Amino acid sequence: MAALSWIAELLQFDRDGDDFCIREPRRGATERLFGGLIAAQSLGVAGATIDGGQLPQSLHAYFVRGGRYDADVEFHVDRTRDGRAFATRHVTASQDGKVILEMLASFHQPEPGLDWSPDAMPALEFDAAAPKHDVMDFGDKFDLRTMPSDTSEFALPPFWIRSQVEIEDDPLIRACTLTFMSDLGPVPSALPPTVPLRSDLGFAASLDHSIWFHRPFLPRGWHRYELQSANHNDSRGLARGSLYDAAGTLIASVSQEALWRIPV
Fold first, then answer.
1. What is the pTM of this model?
2. Is residue 1 part of a domain?
């Protein structure tokens, strides 16, 4: 059997009906579980309960509390609705009996129709971007090209990204890959444009995350991820983003609100 890709390995679970358990990679006990990972796994277990051929259409997740790498994650899936065109799932992820994430995910049977998205000039051309390494939260799984001025531990949008290895030709696994990587930029983007990012700026955490899957995603191809700050008040910042393929076609839309507790 061919070896599984890194994302397929992270999606391996034990199952009992609509209850699932995933053993997380044992990293440092003090490290906070990456939100993109738990969101990808939640979409993966939701998709495992889909029997009608529907593909991921959207997800809306709330990060209820921080997770850990030194404990397994248990998932329960509620089958909210199974229709001919759409199926809806509610996923609850828990560690040690405490909820860490709630997700609603929708799946849609592909059907013919109009195909349009607006043209968008790149905020960062590929040739103007510089390779970047040592990005936190599984950044080693991707090739990244960011603005040459980006010296942070994050990948500051806009940036270009692709998986370093081929991902299985499976729409669900590839949607999970997109979900995973979509959490690599929103938190710093939720700051007001006038506030420079610093390591000592304050406490930050993702609060919720939404994705709309528009078109098939090819993880090994270069994609441009653009995010903009849309609002900031009450210690909460909202970022909205778009993921484009190399031809400029819109692949997915993203939004996330992040908590930023900044001393004033």
1. 0.95
2. no
